[in-house]
């Protein structure tokens, strides 16, 4: 019986996802990442519903999108201000907001999640939406560090579930990591690749391994910078200058951590250190824990390693 059910589901679901061209997108989480992804999707002609539990965050997200579009247009349409204004209006018309994901997923080709980096919270979200979204709808997570397989396991659409990992700030960073699990269908993977291309991004294909490509290399480097600073082997300012001028990185590790958000950094490292307690690369940073306890989460709270007020 289980064999039969499995095969019927597989047949139904693969026909359901054939040729999915993603036009209507629900993005859940209106923070830095969700707002950035919404901006890019709306400016490339997709209709976007941005969802957050907090209406103030949604208002701030739309305001931020408008501000960013204005900045972009100033340069891109320098000698055609009217065309620039039309571009902004078109993009903004493509964005609507909601506090109730369940009521908006009906019309979506893609539901992309960019909420807090917590497995249980992401699983609860997708398990609820799985019952409400149409059969063809693809689900994807923008997780930095969690297993896509684990998140997808809360749903019955394993073949229509993948990872779409964007980089901060989304409008400027050109990469998207596209992650297929062992259950992701080829059609779903192709749809996610095509969608990334439509957004004007370059994609790389990743396996569902912790941190995919970029974060698996980036986080150990940043954590080593924290340890260097904690040992007193360099000031944070000198370490940042050294990596910028010595390696040509646009930001040093402390500036970048403030930019990403120290809470997100900790969520990532806590997950990995729990899974690999003996690996010193993933060891806890007392300094990071203390800063988070003091509410210093980086740029978003006005203070992290540096002050932004
Ligand atoms: C944690 C994870 O899971 C994964 C991650 O994301 S890891 C983090 C990855 N991101 C990085 O590594 C970012 C590293 N930093 C950088 O690349 C650069 O510092 C940066 C792109 C953020 C800013 O570049 P910069 O040249 O120093 O900044 P700045 O001069 O302020 O901005 C450059 C232009 O972009 C525009 N811009 C800045 N932020 C923008 C945004 N969010 N949206 C639209 N435009 C923006 C500015 O208006 C400016 O435009 P003009 O040249 O027309 O004035
Ligand atoms: N900050 C970064 O540089 C990057 C973060 N990511 C990942 O993207 C995700 C989001 O990160 P950020 O945007 O930085 O976080 P953020 O803290 O700026 O935004 C998260 C938003 O999700 C909302 N939210 C939480 N639970 C919700 C729910 N159940 N339903 C609807 N909304 C909910 C919150 O109100 C908040 O506005 C995380 O998984 C993170 O690991 C991925 C790439 C880069």
Automatic annotation (TrEMBL):
Residue sites binding NAD(+) per the record: 29-34, 52, 117, 122, 144, 168, 300
Positions bearing the site annotation: Important for catalytic activity: 165
Pfam families: 3HCDH, 3HCDH_N
Compartment(s) where it occurs, according to its Swiss-Prot or TrEMBL record: Mitochondrion matrix
Cellular component, GO annotation: mitochondrial matrix
UniProt xrefs under InterPro entries: 3-OHacyl-CoA_DH (IPR022694), 3-OHacyl-CoA_DH_CS (IPR006180), 3-OHacyl-CoA_DH_NAD-bd (IPR006176), 3HC_DH_C (IPR006108), 6-PGluconate_DH-like_C_sf (IPR008927), 6PGD_dom2 (IPR013328), Mito_3-hydroxyacyl-CoA_DH (IPR052242), NAD(P)-bd_dom_sf (IPR036291)
Residue span, 3-hydroxyacyl-CoA dehydrogenase C-terminal domain: 211-308
EC number: 1.1.1.35
Keywords: Acetylation, Differentiation, Fatty acid metabolism, Hydroxylation, Lipid metabolism, Mitochondrion, NAD, Oxidoreductase, Spermatogenesis, Transit peptide
GO molecular function: (3S)-3-hydroxyacyl-CoA dehydrogenase (NAD+) activity; NAD+ binding
Domain 3-hydroxyacyl-CoA dehydrogenase NAD binding span(s) in chain numbering: 24-209
Keyword Transmembrane among UniProt keywords: no
Pathway(s) it belongs to: Lipid metabolism; fatty acid beta-oxidation
Keyword Isomerase found: no
Leading EC class: oxidoreductase
UniProt catalytic activity: (3S)-hydroxydecanoyl-CoA + NAD(+) = 3-oxodecanoyl-CoA + NADH + H(+); (3S)-hydroxyhexadecanoyl-CoA + NAD(+) = 3-oxohexadecanoyl-CoA + NADH + H(+); a (3S)-3-hydroxyacyl-CoA + NAD(+) = a 3-oxoacyl-CoA + NADH + H(+); (3S)-3-hydroxybutanoyl-CoA + NAD(+) = acetoacetyl-CoA + NADH + H(+)
Complex and partners: Homodimer. Interacts with GLUD1; this interaction inhibits the activation of glutamate dehydrogenase 1 (GLUD1).
Function, in words: Mitochondrial fatty acid beta-oxidation enzyme that catalyzes the third step of the beta-oxidation cycle for medium and short-chain 3-hydroxy fatty acyl-CoAs (C4 to C10). Plays a role in the control of insulin secretion by inhibiting the activation of glutamate dehydrogenase 1 (GLUD1), an enzyme that has an important role in regulating amino acid-induced insulin secretion. Plays a role in the maintenance of normal spermatogenesis through the reduction of fatty acid accumulation in the testes.
Family: Belongs to the 3-hydroxyacyl-CoA dehydrogenase family.
Protein's recorded name: Hydroxyacyl-coenzyme A dehydrogenase, mitochondrial
Taxonomic source organism: Cottoperca gobio (Frogmouth)
């Amino acid at each position: 019986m289980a064999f039969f059910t499995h095969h019927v589901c597989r047949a139904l679901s693969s026909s359901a996802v054939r040729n999915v061209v993603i036009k209507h997108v629900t993005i859940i989480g209106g923070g830095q990442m969700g707002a950035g992804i919404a901006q890019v999707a709306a400016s490339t002609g997709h209709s976007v519903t941005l969802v957050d539990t907090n209406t103030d965050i949604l208002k701030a997200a739309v305001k931020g999108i408008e501000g960013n579009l204005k900045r972009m247009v100033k340069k891109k349409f320098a000698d055609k201000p009217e065309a620039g204004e039309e571009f902004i209006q078109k993009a903004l018309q493509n964005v609507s907001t909601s506090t109730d994901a369940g009521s908006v997923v009906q019309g979506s080709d893609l539901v992309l999640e960019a909420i807090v980096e917590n497995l249980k919270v992401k699983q609860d979200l997708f398990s609820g939406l799985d019952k409400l979204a149409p059969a063809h709808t693809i689900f994807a997570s923008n997780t930095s560090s969690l297993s896509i397989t684990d998140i997808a396991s809360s749903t019955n659409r394993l073949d229509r579930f993948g990872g779409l990992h964007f980089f901060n700030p989304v409008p400027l960073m050109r990469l998207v990591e596209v992650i297929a699990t062992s259950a992701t269908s080829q059609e779903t993977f192709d749809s996610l690749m095509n969608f990334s291309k439509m957004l004007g991004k370059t994609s790389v294909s990743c396996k569902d391994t912790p941190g995919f490509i970029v974060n698996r290399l980036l986080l150990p480097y940043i954590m080593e910078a924290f340890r260097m600073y904690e040992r007193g082997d360099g000031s944070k300012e000198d370490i940042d200058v050294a990596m910028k001028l010595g390696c040509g990185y646009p930001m040093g590790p402390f500036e970048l951590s403030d930019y990403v958000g120290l809470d997100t950094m900790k969520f990532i490292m806590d997950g990995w250190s729990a899974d690999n307690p003996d690996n010193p690369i993933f060891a806890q940073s007392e300094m990071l824990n203390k800063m988070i306890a003091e509410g210093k989460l980086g740029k978003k709270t006005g203070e992290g390693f540096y002050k932004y007020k």
